Amino acid sequence: MASVQMFNAFIFNTITIPAGGAQGYWVGPSPALGSGTVTVTAHSQPGFVTGDMILGVELLKTRWPGAGGGQNPFIDITVRNHGTNSCPFVRLMVSTVQP
Known about the structure:
By secondary structure, the protein is an all-beta fold. It contains no helices and seven strands.
C-alpha cells in the first residue's frame, strides 16, 4: 500500500511576483524527495491580494547536494503568476507518495 507524506506548508515572503512573472524556490533536504511522486501546489496568502490570483507550479528537478552518500535531495520549484495582480506571499504545499 502506498503511503503519503505531507510536509508543512512553506510560506515565502520574497520578492513580489508580478503578474506574468516567476520566482524560484527550493525545498529540502529530505529523504522522501528522492523517490516516489512529489506533488506541489502554490497558493497566495488570503488577505494580502484582492482580485484575480492564479499561480502555476513547475517542478524543475530533484537535485542531490553533493557526491556524499548520506546527503538527502532537494527539489527546485518555479512558481509562475498567471493572474493579473502581483503576489507578495506564496504558500507551497508539498507532499510525496511512496510506493
